[in-house]
Specification:
about 75% helix, mainly alpha, single chain, Four Helix Bundle (Hemerythrin (Met), subunit A)
Length: about 200
Amino acid sequence: MFETVVFYALAAVLLLSGLRVITARNPVHGALFLVLAFFTAAGLWLLLRAEFLAIALVVVYVGAVMVLFLFVVMMLDINLERVREGFWRNLPLALVVGVIMVAEMVGVVGNRIWGAAPRQLPADYSNTKELGRVLYTDYAFAFEVAAVILLVAIIAAIALTLRRRKDTRAQDPAEQVKARPSERVRLVSMPAEKE
């Protein structure tokens, strides 16, 4: 009974915060509502006894992605009127994507209700241990490919931010090492002046 009450409370908060994410006029408020949505989704994962996924959701999305997003939104001067101009133009595509997502959710819930029953788990079952076993045995190659793709993305982001600035002066050690005294100093023989 208690878990059911907590589930419905978290689900209500998640739905309301998700609605406020897309209806908030201020982007900072929308981002903060998204943080609230992530926290309540992590609470739902905890109710499902998926502790690792709940912790990963909080650490990765709330701790890293949303903090970065908030910094970007607060540092940039976003013209809200220009952002809202494309709303009606993009509405048909958004409705198509929304209908597809609702159909997928109905399919998942329908399979849960009318489909096969989930297998019973032993009392000492560890979600984190089972996730690690599957990730590093059955999906090890896909895990490594994802790691390489993320590494390439990090290197690309660093390369994009390191642009040459014309107003800074820098020394080139290779050119300094190649220098010879005969190229730098010219001795001129001048006769001494007599009074």
